[in-house]
Fold:
Amino acid sequence: MSTNRELFHAIIVLAAALLMAMFAAFCFPLRSHADEAPNDWPKYYRTDDAWRYSPLEQINASNVAKLKVAWIHQPGDIQMGLQATPIVIDGIVYYVGANNNVFAVDGSTGKTLWHYQPDLDPIVTKVFYVAASRGVTVGHGMVYLGSLDGRYIALDQKTGKVKWERQITDLKTCYGCLFSSPPQLAGDILYGGTTGGDQPQAGKIFAVNAITGEPAWTFDTIKDDRKSWPGDTGKVGGGGAWMPGVYDAKTDTILIGTSNAAPDFFPAGREGDNLYTATLLAIEGKTGQLKWHYQEVPHDTWDYDAAYEIMTIQHEGKDLLVHLNKGGYVFVLDKATGKPYNIWPLAKHINWTSGIDPKTGEIKDRYEPKAGEARTICPYLLGVRSWNAASYNPKTKLWYTNAMEVCNVVNSSPQEVDKIGLAGLYLGVSKLEAVPPPGDKASARLDARDPITGKVKWSIDYELPGLGSVLSTAGNLVFNGDVRGVFHAYDAETGKELWNFNTGSGIRSGSVSYAAGGKQYILVPSGLGSHAPGFMASAFPKVKGLPGGSALIAFTLE
Amino acid sequence: MRKYFVIENVAHIISVCATAAVFTLCAATIVAIGARAGGDSANLDDPVAISGGETTFYQNCVYCHGSKGSGGSAKALQCRDMKPDYIFETITNGRIAGANVMPPWKDTFDEKTRWQLVAYIRSLRKLPECDAGN
Structure:
């Protein structure tokens, strides 16, 4: 009898365990990266999902109003402000200020652990994209920098001493193409692209061995194909991949987007698709071979880069990519194939097309710039949003992004390439002006939306466009800094503002969250300095004269 | 070469003036030419120079200075009476003002192109919007 009872008992336990395992498998079919290394912000977008989401919840909607400044770190050089997204690993903050000043900082105290600045080639002061970097990458015991003078530099993570460096580009021959974003890791491969969508050059993605710095492969973002680029137009076709890509280790796939085609607004002569500009690329990490590509804007004539963050979201058992193009549409693609799943408009004012087919991606009724005519085109060249990334919160299942409604008047005009010097741009215009949308005023907002369908959950008007990346956390919080420097915290569900702090200079960076010594921190790089406010000033006069600065500010609860 | 050109011109004007014997007018003309001696022969009021400068401006400068130099991340260039040499010098060598940086354009544009930019910026002195107190 007792044995029978024991057997019965064992069967029940077994059945329960089986049920639980099945339940777990059913509930979490595709595990996200969100919970990995919860205390750290180890990569540019924190994880390869590119969610910009921290699973920390010590700071939450009920106590966020008690945030206080814990420490401030100043890089000392404010040229072009502070545009970086810091990396935080094991309580140590790694970031880069103006002119490639790299710092390791104690995340509890703000004390400098080491500082490194390369001896930069003087050419860096003569190019268009001066001084600014968007961050560093940490891995293999090294801190990687893409330098303003076209180098990859690997520093010892502990000491900041150079382990290896390699000259990758020659600024003199590529109109100042340089690394404004940190090169990223794909296992042992370090890869990245340069500025150059608005310059008469041909973009490339450069990969080296991350351990040694030896060249691995180079991918031409300008396809060698006369059908795509008649004559020599590809040689000056733009196509830089100037933002960080993401990596899928399971399939050894790099996902990275490319810039617009050049000359931006004067397409005559480059009739064709102009591959691989305004395109998402899936590249094999080891070999640099193209797995698939999806060109969001074939034959781009509007400066509609596809360089922004590429998010992965699980939906109905599928891995989908969510990607905003400057042209105002969000492209939701099947991650395995790059085929469209849905395409929806984030911008309200779009007139370069009457619509994009959400299943085929066909761009209907293109309204292109025309030589000899002033045409108002929406959105304008900074896009419905600048490069400052969105955030996805798996708890609310909402996508949080800044957005703006601005158009530009474009007089398309040919431009002689040999008259464009080192700091020159190859826009193909004789006139270009940011203007409010026809019949409306220029406006800006922070949106919370369903990333797959675009359905709005809440939206907050901003006086001026937000130029910083959004952060969301498991504490039911969304953080967004504005261009005047006020850093806001909102309830992630409702959009209600819960707290704000005036940092004194605009946010043009990526705020992050981490934990050190048992405390959660919100880390805010403050300091304006960017090309964007200059161009938007004709539509938003109040953006003029906002003060520059550069300070890394850490907040925590008392 | 340019210097000789100016001296030649001055000599020529003096001889013409002498015959006409209108000395006050003469003096004014010499001063006017002298003021331009540091530049090149492009006339700053020449509509061709101004429109050439305008195109270069919209291709390269509008990003920071706003359309018609209305101001952006950098100061407004319109409604201001800046000296031509000052404008030329600033364009040539660039400028750093706090967080904002203007690259030098010396290696990007030849002198003629830079003077056309000067002509365009000078043309922004008296726009209708200047009276509106902008």
User: Anything to note?
Assistant: The beta strands of chain B are 95-97, 100-102. Chain B has two domains: 1-36, 47-127. The helical segments of chain B are 2-20, 23-36, 47-60, 62-65, 84-93, 111-122, 128-131.
